[in-house]
């Protein structure tokens, strides 16, 4: 079987992989003129690297183009499924015939035995490793591998990038669809370029399916309409993958948008998580926000958030989006106060630094035989025996008896009232604090 016949069995996305850096779509911050990967190739000073980013953004394409531009042997393995023996065979090849570029997919799943075997060959330059992952390598990849590689982040491709690649595939007679007489409506190519949200692999394979599954008309033309394009997008690339690295970025942006009182941004990130059916992440984050960011400025909002979360969990998606949206809007537009989290974190910080003392004897538990002999509980003043159910008494250990953790804010009526009471009590205790402290 000839090479071209073998290639015909591969998907279009495979056949259209770049053979050099000039054919790469997007990622110009890495492969454009004067950029880091192009400089490495031009200077023939390749170093091992990790490429991370969403699916279909060109990790394998860049590895293939580097190999094509440098003429080094190119081999591809999967860290999760290929054995250590497969690695040994590639190292043996490198020893016999020279440097090999090893594309290692899912590198975040590389086991320690495979890693230990690979490391010395990275250091002596026999193997140039190009690891690929959708996970954040700073979180998921072993430091021993990270320290021997450069890490490059790939960005999602734009619709314009994908359209360019689709048009090239449509006219390429060797590896693409140039042998077919295709009329592709503008609305159809726009849909193919947009529907997969930056996943070029899915867009190319959808185009191939559309062309090869649509019969030619009486004039011998394969006419691809918008409706056909919609039918052939086999995979909708989620903007938010609840199991992927981008999950943490979306959740972070969601909380920061609510904290910053940007309703529209918060609803946008809610939509990403709702579209991925990621109800647990949404509900957990909303409860955290209600107490961390709104807090004492508006405690009623926390109660409403709990009710909204309960309703969302009972009805599930898609209806859950309604109470969740109400909670998001409510939290966004509420006054904010982080005084509670700041207070407890200050207390924890003191504790962790050893800045605490012995509990005063009058506060210790007196409810056991012999406690009185130890002085435990003696001298305790029961506040309910005094006017207004309050009496001046020291509760903090001597070492930190004048320490203040709670610093009130005045961004809502409720905390304003708490602040006034707090200042009043501290003054009565003889440990007043400034109102702007």
TrEMBL record:
Keywords: ATP-binding, Nucleotide-binding. It comes from Ligilactobacillus araffinosus DSM 20653. This is Replication-associated recombination protein A. Residues 45-157 form the AAA+ ATPase domain. Pfam families: AAA, AAA_assoc_2, MgsA_C. SUPFAM superfamilies: P-loop containing nucleoside triphosphate hydrolases (SSF52540), post-AAA+ oligomerization domain-like (SSF48019). CDD domains: AAA, HLD_clamp_RarA. Belongs to the AAA ATPase family. RarA/MGS1/WRNIP1 subfamily. Transmembrane segments: none annotated.
